[in-house]
Amino acid sequence: MLVNADFHIHSCFSMASSKDMLIKNIAPKSSQKGLHLLGTGDGVHPGWLDIVEESTDYLGDGIYHANGCDFVLTCEVEGKNRIHHLIIIPDMDTARELSDKLPSKNKAFNGRPKTRYGGAELLDLVHEYDCLIGPAHAFTPWTGMYKSYDSIYDCYQNKPDFVELGLSADTLMADRVSELKDFTFLTNSDAHSPWPHRLGREFNQIELEDISYTSIKKAIKNRDVKANYGLVPNLGKYHMTACTKCHKLIDSLLAKDNKMKCRCGGTIKKGVDFRISEIADFSKPKHPDFRPDYVHLMPLAEIIASVHDKGVTTKTVQGIWQKLIDNFKTEIDVLINVPLEDINKIDSNVSGAIESFRNGTVTIVPGGGGRYGQILFENKVEKPKPVTLDNF
Ligand SMILES: [Zn+2]
Ligand SMILES: [Zn+2]
């Protein structure tokens, strides 16, 4: 069976996460997004594990069910060098045991605990418990594995089970790195709120024998992801090299020459685009035979917000989003499958914008330095170019 799965979210217990990140809110929203299977996130946090147990029915073999949505236990851990790792956990008993074993001062307070363990120690520990592990948002400049290492094997010593690409990268970018040719790529939302432009903004279409931890493990090991769905990487907040204070996009070589200091006094962060070019072996992607399609997405609510010039969480935007979902079932269908004339009957501006999205004629102001890229229709604003020597 083909299952849409998003393995990386955060609960209300993670830093900077919404207090609404509770199973009762997440489950119905994820069905509307067209997701069948969700990682719980924060799966070594004792309080969150209690909530998962109380708010779901256990179906066996690591699967917890609520409101039309199945959950598998997952968590993100911050290890040595501030590197983030994503872990998929077989069941509740294992999660609680792992939580006790993980050397961490703050796991009772923070859903994403910090530990002194490096990638290799974490990999050994979680493999003892039959978990899966891989780098989370592998190329990002604050907490991605490749910010500290030129090779995934320097971090983990052994082969981890997958690589999470992160919002600012896609398969076209990652398959320029030859050592990744054997890896399953996962695309997950890393959502900190249940808003529809966050939850499921990236997900995996995965072939499973049934919905169980055993099948999930087998599918990831056998590279049975059939499609990766994810943001156009320009929209990711670390796609381009940019200042974290004034958010100006800055030429990466110039930034290096200036020791990553911006004129405004802010720190410049290296973009995922440039980091991949540094570690890439190929100038063009070389996809292994098993590599599935990467389907580019834009959050529907952000498209609506842009054409109506309103905030994405406003009543107008959320109202139109809900109306589209009520009529056409899931966001993915509205973005990709529903005929434009049907969308036109609900909102002609939105159908025009979805047509541009499908044709690839949307203008995007690229993200960088911690600010998301921006979707523009009708060329409202001129696309800014990276700052170069001439105008630094
Ligand atoms: Zn992270
Ligand atoms: Zn600046």
Can you walk me through this structure?
This protein is an alpha/beta fold and 392 residues long. It is built from 15 helices and 16 strands. It has helices at residues 23-33, 46-55, 92-101, 119-128, 145-148, 152-156, 171-174, 213-221, 252-257, 272-279, 300-308, 315-328, 331-336, 340-346, 348-359; strands at 2-6, 37-39, 57-60, 63-66, 69-79, 83-89, 132-135, 163-164, 185-186, 203-207, 225-231, 242-243, 268-269, 293-297, 363-365, 374-376. Strands 1, 2, 3, 4, 5, 6, 7, 10, 11 and 14 form a ten-stranded mixed sheet that branches. The longest helix is centred in the C-terminal third of the chain and has 14 residues, at 315-328. The chain is globular and about 55 Å long. The mean pLDDT is 93. One zinc ion binds at residues 76, 84, 136-137, 143.
List keywords for this structure.
15 helices, 18% strand, globular, 2 domains, binds zinc ion, two-stranded parallel sheet, alpha/beta, TIM Barrel, 392 residues, 32% helix
Number of strands: 16
User: What's the rounded overall pLDDT mean?
Assistant: 93
At the fourth level of CATH, the homologous superfamily of the largest domain is Metal-dependent hydrolases
> What number of domains?
2
Low-pLDDT residue spans: none
**Major sheet description:** 10 strands, mixed
Number of helices: 15
What's the Cα radius of gyration? 20 Å
| Range of strand content | 15-25%
Classified by CATH, the class of the largest domain is Alpha Beta
What global shape is seen? globular
Measured between the Cα atoms of the first and last residue, the distance is 53 Å
Summing up helix and strand content along with how strands pair, one would put the structural category as alpha/beta
Write the CATH fold name of the largest domain: TIM Barrel
What oligomeric state do these chains adopt? single chain
The CATH architecture of the largest domain comes to: Alpha-Beta Barrel
